[in-house]
């Protein structure tokens, strides 16, 4: 009764809300979001530097998140590279001196805070020719004015960056009098034109005063109140912003430190000076403001202009635009023709005369429609991760942000279960389910920033290995049973694997190796194909007649294992192979193939394990040793119980080992050899009990069918900055943002899956002669693409 009610309810929901209607809703949401963000940019401005300098929030302890953009954490080498031959000057009181020390420690962490505090403090790094000075001017007075005035003279070398600010000394010395505030206004008015003049050639920042923690202030500082500080800040902002009549002031207000101080001033030792972590955050913000536009770090979207379009991107835009226009023209012509053939009403009977001929959809229409849809989707990709239209935020890991969504999808997966069509080991529904829940866990892992938590990282590594295990198992089983080594099968698989990635490489201007998982699966598929297709071709039909062929196949697998071991322990040979042109264009990242070698080596044995498992399983199945009937255990009760016990113990043992892992490099070294333990344990636990083999989760299986598209699309339309951050469609509401962006992301991935399938049927025909002609065209296209890419690379350098 409950099952009947569930099926009726599901049918009722599907009647009103289908995948098609979900995609229409996603399209409407995208259009509304684009319109809202365009209006917001027009109203509030498009300068992310202003947001970085003025607004933000703490995601957690010591983790600062600027409004709408991502902040890069600069390393020593990056800071020196950015500031080479630069001069930075800090002018002000003890608070500015603190900021100076924190800034210098980004360049040289060993620099010590020592010496006379009320004097100028120089710093110079001769290796990078970086000079950073602190100039002691605790009050805005004639002394500070004279210092700034010297720099305005043409004959004097000016600092590239000037960071100034002062007020608390004026409050303290004059006991917080109103006359001191009036004098402060006069003094800052006199230096405002000088700062404005300097700002035309240098970056000038005025640091607003941070609040104090009045309860901790000493008796001689009690007059420094937050009310007085606010009055001085208002005066500085008003005067400096009005220093130019007809245009916006070039002197930038560094007001974000006030927000940082409001959250952390309670940790101050004296109530006046900020704790070290807060100063480090302010210094890193300064580094981002100046260096992001120079070094252009991927995870530092603040203060970065939109990258210029490359020649290949412009050509892609033209192609998709022509496809959209072509489809619209085709649609209008087709619709007019349809209207002419519309059935007319018989005046005597009042009934419609129906057309006898139903016009089939032509391949040209499917082709144009597919590229039209793809063009619109790629425009959304570009807007999300290249055009700076939508906002981006840094990831921040907490245990709850990872484990709560895991529990939630687990409950949904268990709730939506159905009977399988067949009860064989790793049947189609079960493998789709496996891919689905693994992909969802990987997505949660990426968006929650769980890579910083080593136990989670090690378990995710097993999921990636399990996907490759399925690659080995699935393709080996197909070639072994079907014996289909024709070119059509190979081209179909390669097209489905690589189509989306090739398009993204063109549109998003990223190398093929950037989407590392697809090259990994592609190469392993070719390894499986070549291993089995090479003479002698051994398939199940041939091996059934003579057991000798089984030994021949095992010998082939043995040679494959030796080849894998040779490449794994000979980095030089591996790099020489994949550094040859044109392979180098596909597998290089940042000018070398080390990243590709690392990724390949990390899961080097698991595809072999998948092939070997498939061979053993199919051999046992052929000899009818396995019981794969509905509800039947896979083996006899004793053997089944024993294997289940061993599997559970193995599964838990691996989990305990992965959870206790302390050194990432050491664990990565062991991972290729031991990951198969948990994979095999899971397969046996999932397949030995007959009842477990007879059901599957339709929820997970649905996602499993689009798992590849989900993995690739997340790079740009769910995550941001090439997976380094999170896409923010709805600012100020993280939960609603995740719901909306996930909904759009899943709809897009599903649509791309359908587009890929439709295009595969047209571009990869079954007729060999037609296929060879298409392959020649594809080869010419890639040759042209490689030549254009080489020209682009030379022009960049």
Automatic annotation (TrEMBL):
Keywords: Acyltransferase, Glycoprotein, Golgi apparatus, Membrane, Transferase, Transmembrane, Transmembrane helix. It comes from the Eukaryota. The keyword Transmembrane applies. It is a multi-pass membrane protein. The keyword Heme does not apply. It holds the Pfam family Cas1_AcylT. One of its GO terms (molecular function) is N-acetylneuraminate 9-O-acetyltransferase activity. It is found in: Golgi apparatus membrane. The chain crosses the membrane at residues 311-333, 363-383, 395-416, 437-458, 493-509, 515-535, 547-569, 602-620, 641-658, 700-720, 726-750, 771-791. It is an enzyme of class 2 (transferase). It catalyses: CMP-N-acetyl-beta-neuraminate + acetyl-CoA = CMP-N-acetyl-7-O-acetyl-beta-neuraminate + CoA; CMP-N-acetyl-beta-neuraminate + acetyl-CoA = CMP-N-acetyl-9-O-acetyl-beta-neuraminate + CoA; a ganglioside GD3 (d18:1(4E)) + acetyl-CoA = a ganglioside Ac-O-7-GD3(d18:1(4E)) + CoA. Residues 296-775 form the Cas1p 10 TM acyl transferase domain. One of its GO terms (cellular component) is Golgi membrane. GO terms for biological process: carbohydrate metabolic process. Its main location: Golgi. Residues 64-135 form the NXPE C-terminal domain. Its EC number is 2.3.1.45. PANTHER family: N-ACETYLNEURAMINATE 9-O-ACETYLTRANSFERASE. Belongs to the PC-esterase family. CASD1 subfamily. This is N-acetylneuraminate (7)9-O-acetyltransferase. It comes from Colobus angolensis palliatus. The lineage of its organism: Eukaryota, Metazoa, Chordata, Craniata, Vertebrata.
